[in-house]
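Q: Give me the 3D complex with coenzyme A.
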Amino acid sequence: MQTALAEGVLAGKVAFIAGGSSGINLGVAEGFAAAGAKVALISRSPEKIEAAAKDLRDKGYEAIGMAADVRDYVAVEAALATTAGHWGPIDIVLSGAAGNFVAPAAGMSANGFKTVIDIDLLGTFNVFRASYGHIRKPGASLIAITAGQAVQPMVNQIHACAAKAGVNMVTQCLAMEWGPEGVRVNGISPGPIAETEGMRRLTPTPEAEAAYMATIPLGRYGEKRDIAELAIFLSTDSARYISGAIIPCDGASILTGGSQSSFKPA
Ligand code: NAP
Ligand code: COA
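A: Here is the predicted complex, encoded as structure tokens.
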């Protein structure tokens, strides 16, 4: 991946990416690798995660993939330990695993709500908490991938709104607790990013996609590279005084609230 940042800005760094088998997180992983980092990826599916890691290796990067469900603390901790055992202290931890579907609250089971809370919110706690013994102190950059749902109530998104609001709080509480040890913790809030599972689920028809597009002040969907650029910057020394920030990377779409009326259950 070609980025606008100086080549090799993350040379020698080790990055751990949770939810790295596809979409935005895999795009960020490729950005980290192109900037010189060694990358370790986890996700639930052994096939998907190995294919993603192999694809990065085929492009000439150093990458390993491990199957681990972020809801399983022991599995996450084991993957972090393997990464640190392989390459040494971890410089960058990205927590981006998430699940979402469009459903009205009145039609959602308690288990449907809990499932998204467990993946997004408990998963982010697990990834960051388990990383504590393996990250570089001082110096590590921890990044949560959150969403506009965290601050903007949305119809048919009660589970994702509650989960991502919690992700923002986990991010900011850890920035306060771990700041004194030289660990920075930030969140990136992507807007609608093209060619992702998230947008396929939220805007499954051309009409819904067009309605969403009309609400984006910059007039386009984002690209995975847009999120990668910000994640790379946050992990360099240029961002050394940035912690506890939740940074939108969304073409200003949070200002309009997005096209909520297009979020209809399939
Ligand atoms: P995606 O491709 O479906 O990415 C989700 C990733 O998480 C996959 O790699 C998936 O792999 C993994 N995953 C899911 N459940 C997991 C679990 N329990 N344990 C470990 N890994 C798990 O979706 P995306 O649209 O790119 O979204 C990526 C992130 O960006 C999410 O945090 C999402 O909330 C956020 N976001 C996306 C958009 C957007 O426009 N798409 C906008 C705002 C925020 P496996 O299936 O192999 O587990
Ligand atoms: N509408 C309402 N409820 C739904 C639903 C939908 N579209 N999809 C799943 N659920 C409910 C299920 O019915 C189940 O509840 P129940 O036991 O009361 O019936 C609960 O959610 C858990 O479903 P399950 O399929 O067992 O969960 P899982 O852990 O295997 O998968 C999901 C998690 C549901 C989030 C699945 O969509 C997924 O794996 N998503 C990852 C990819 C993704 O969402 N990418 C976008 C990221 S923004």
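A quick observation: The helical segments are 23-34, 46-58, 73-87, 110-131, 158-178, 197-202, 206-213, 224-234.
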